[in-house]
Amino acid sequence: MGKVFKYTLIDLARNRFVLGYALLMLALSQGLFLLEDDPMKAMLSLVQVVLALVPLIALVFTVVYLYDIQEFTQLLAVQPIARQSILGGQLLALATALLVAQGFGLGLPLLVHAPGPSALMLSLSGSALVLVFAALGALIALRQREKARGVGMALVLWLGFVLVYDAMLMWLMFTTSDYPVEPFVVPLAALNPIDLARILVMLEIDLAAMMGYSGAVYKSFFGSAAGMAMAGAILISWVLMPTWGAFRVFRKKDL
Amino acid sequence: MRTLLLLLVVLAIVAPARALTWMHRGGGDPTLKNLLLSAAPGDTIVIEGTVAEGALVIEKRLTLWGRPGAVIDGLNEDDALLVKADSVEVRGLTFRNPRRSNLDDKAGLKVANCTGARIVGNHFDHCFFAIYLSGAKGALVQGNTVQGRPGEEESMANGIHLWKCSAARILDNWVEYHRDGIYFEFVTGSTIERNTTMHNLRYGLHFMFSNNDAYMDNHFERNGAGVAVMFSKQIVMKRNHFLANRGASAYGLLLKEINDGEISDNEFVDNTTGIMVDGCNRLEVRSNTFRSNGWALRLFANATGSSFRGNTFAGNTFDLSTNGSLMLNTVEGNYWDRYTGYDLDRDGTGDVPHRPLGFFTLLVERQPYAMVFSRSLFVALLDRAERLLPSLTPEAMKDDRPRMRPPGTTAKVEKPAGTVMARRSVPSSMLFAWLLLACSMPYFAAHG
User: Fold this and answer.
1) Which residues of A touch B295 (CB under 8 A)?
2) With an 8 Å Cβ cutoff, are B247 and A211 in contact?
3) Residue B305: which H helix or E strand, with range?
4) CATH code, B193
5) In Å, how far is B226's CA from the nearest CA of chain A?
6) Which segments in chain A show pLDDT lower than 50?
7) Is residue B430 domain-shared with residue B283, that is, in the same domain?
């Protein structure tokens, strides 16, 4: 697994897309911080960018990359290497490359311009989103033989997480507003990793509003140690479950 | 004979008995109670050490002066000190242990039905009511510290309590851990300046039925429900700081049924709601700063004839919210950090109106739990759409002359060398607007 990890990482380091991703994030965050007078405002714009863009890029890049190295994977598979090690090394390298790129493009400017708990929370949840969507991307790429369909599925999945889920939840909330179902909205929203990441960041940034009538519910839910542990558990299971699925598919897959 | 009599009268008027100064050491003889009875009007009593004689009453014009460390202990009997005479001065004393009673309000120092009391530089340690002025005219309360204990606010009454007073001056006091910090009921023509009230259970400052008062340069922080001004007319509120008053029903400033008030140059930071305006008429809200609040301004539809000019709204989750479609107030010439318009003629005001009320604001007003969608992409798109083509938000709810820069900053901001010049345009929001337009093109093409 170590060798696969190493060579995949070297390949990724030369990949223009990863470099481009790092530079894009750097340009975005640096630009926002320089153009806005108020670092807090830049941070808020950055939150929206990160929450929408990071999952998209992690998802699409993982899918595309895994299709691209298919031949290399086949080559590895004929060697006396366990399939688990092949996929494990590749996924680990992918995650490492994306995290490093993101740390450079997002973490560094945050550290320079707005150090503090909200910056930390933003980088942490950004990293969690990278892992979650890389795992989902791996599952899609391994289940779907055709590259075009895989990328299409990735896009649909992204749209679902970033827009459709919220829209459905909001619709649900308003159609059932005659019943006391509101408290269920928080856990339901938390099931979506993007929403969960957003709520975690908002609890740091919009603290004043979050202390309001309804926000107090979220604060008590996520502010406590148990809530934090739960948020962490949800994010980790969002990483582990698709990864496990990917391994299961890959083990039996006819390459 | 007649001349002699006249001379005597003149002498009696011109040269009254000289005022005496008495020293009293706590526990000494005669007791302070006796001294208060035997002293002549105009005398001064200097107090040292701890006086533990229970409830004391002053019924003539005296000055009570505490040396450092002087304490009046009420022994839970009644008001620790009750002042019933005009022009009494109480200075430099520490008060403790008045009787706790919710039936008859007992205080560390109560001033009842008299004129010109001066309460200066005292300390109130964990008193039920600390300073209680009832029917007092022209009282001065200055430089006192009033402290309850953390965790015991429930059993505390108000710090500085005024009932049916006029021309009072409440200056430079510090009130902490009480029920209300400063409470005004039926108080007229009074000023409250440079006080600090923090960590009070209910309101830092509470006005009820009090007209023609002013409060300036005060600091209100982390009070359970902020500051409330209710059912009062002609109140002036200037240069106060409202900080971190957080909670479901906490307000930096809660205004209910206020007529002709003036609110200017205040600072609202980190409150759940900066100002809540409920049923107010002809308010003038000018040059205030709202920063990092949950809701900067909640303007209910039952407010009329009020104007909001020259305020700065920056970094708030919601700048403005309302509960109806009626809008009979003027919102003009404010600075909104969310404003995305342009200023082609460079006169400092934006060329297109700003609509501070977003779709999401209305959504949360109707369904508070929708707060969970705060700043999600979906909501951002809906918000942007609503601002471009308002359909749900009241048409009149807009600022026709939004400022490009916060008031007080000039057009040419001098920045230290090496930093990039500040620019007003907001690239991300422009991006969103274009994205939305681009996305909606096929729709318009298909349905237009």
Assistant:
1) 209, 212
2) yes
3) strand B304-309
4) 2.160.20.10
5) 13
6) none
7) yes
